[in-house]
Write a structure and sequence with these properties.
The protein is of the alpha/beta class. The chain is built from twelve helices and eleven strands.
């Protein structure tokens, strides 16, 4: 059984929503330990009649805190305590919807990095019609990168595509403003050359519109660009669903129930809360899953499930072996 340390603090919706997701996950058979302020978490569990274990962490890393400073100045924050539980073997994976920068820093320093990895990266799945997602990394952990970082992202992303999604020889693309090798900044132009020699199936530069299609399986970029792309796609998807629902309801009022059901089916496929709930932070020596700051209870449930599947599937061990061969 995989034991997940769930960070309850520092999210947009507050501890009550995270606790609700934790209770859902526990009821589904997942083993968890909740990390955060016991005086806050205890009453929430009592209201639900739950006896989930709590590890007290009195401090909170707020979203506006400087990640590096917060990790140094708040050693008893829920993120740091959760990372220490994983590092000591008391938990197998950490799930947090708190400060991404603080989680990445704690993961790198406390849990540690896989040999050869300088920068862990967030690998976020993007739904597409094939049923198998496109992975984009980095999706927010590293705002600035060097060309060799992008090469390691490509190797890690390819391994996850193979291990988690069963892809055979996944196609890797470098996100750019055009497909020509001369496009982009110096970091992209240099990375293009390096990726041609990397142990991945590099298909060249790709543009944003290629991500949800069947052009490429893994897209690599810096964390700033990847995060903007991800949130833009999420916002656009929500807008399209809203506009489609309104248009169909006006034109097909007698079929409103069927329309709502059809729209809901699409939403279940593309809503990040419902289809994933979080993303693996790749490159750490134990599992770390990062959720949205505005995660709902359903997102928390899915993030815990994602973390559990990673542990049971031996994701970290298989990545270590794969990276050692690359």
């Amino acid at each position: 059984m995989a034991r997940v340390a769930l960070d309850v603090m520092g999210t947009d919706r507050g501890p009550s929503e995270i606790v609700a997701g934790a209770i859902m996950a526990a009821q589904a058979g997942h083993e968890l330990v909740l990390v955060g302020d016991q005086e806050v978490i205890g009453p929430e569990l009592a209201k639900a009649g739950s006896d989930l274990e709590i590890v007290h962490a009195p401090d909170v890393v707020e979203m506006g805190d400087d990640p590096g400073r917060a990790v140094r100045d708040k050693p008893d924050s829920s993120i740091m305590v959760g990372a220490r539980l994983v590092a000591s073997g008391q938990a197998d994976s950490l799930v947090s919807a708190g400060s991404t920068g603080a989680v990445m820093t704690a993961g790198s320093i406390i849990i540690g990095r896989i040999e050869g990895i300088q920068r862990p990266a967030i690998a976020t799945p993007i739904p597409r019609p094939t049923g198998i997602p496109t992975l984009i990394l980095d999706a927010g952990a590293n705002l600035e990168v060097k060309p060799d970082h992008l090469v390691r992202f490509a190797v890690m992303g390819s391994l996850v595509a193979e291990i988690v999604y069963g892809m055979d020889c996944p196609r890797v693309g470098l996100l750019n403003i055009g497909t020509e090798s001369s496009k982009g900044r110096e970091v992209e132009r240099t990375a293009y050359t390096l990726l041609q020699e990397a142990p991945v199936k590099f298909v060249g530069n790709v543009e944003g519109g290629d991500i949800p299609g069947d052009v490429v399986d893994v897209v690599v970029t810096d964390g700033f660009t990847g995060n903007v792309v991800l949130k833009s796609m999420e916002g656009t998807a929500g807008l399209v669903l809203t506009l489609a629902g309104e248009a169909f309801s006006r034109r097909l009022p007698d079929h409103s129930r069927e329309v709502v059901q059809a729209i809901e089916e699409v939403r279940m496929t593309i809503d990040p809360d419902l289809c994933a709930g979080g993303a693996h932070l790749l490159g750490t020596r134990a599992g770390v899953v990062i959720g949205h700051g505005s995660s709902s209870r359903h997102a928390v449930f899915n993030a815990v499930q994602l973390a559990t599947e990673g542990v049971k599937g031996g994701l970290i061990e298989r990545m270590e072996r794969g990276l050692a061969r690359s």
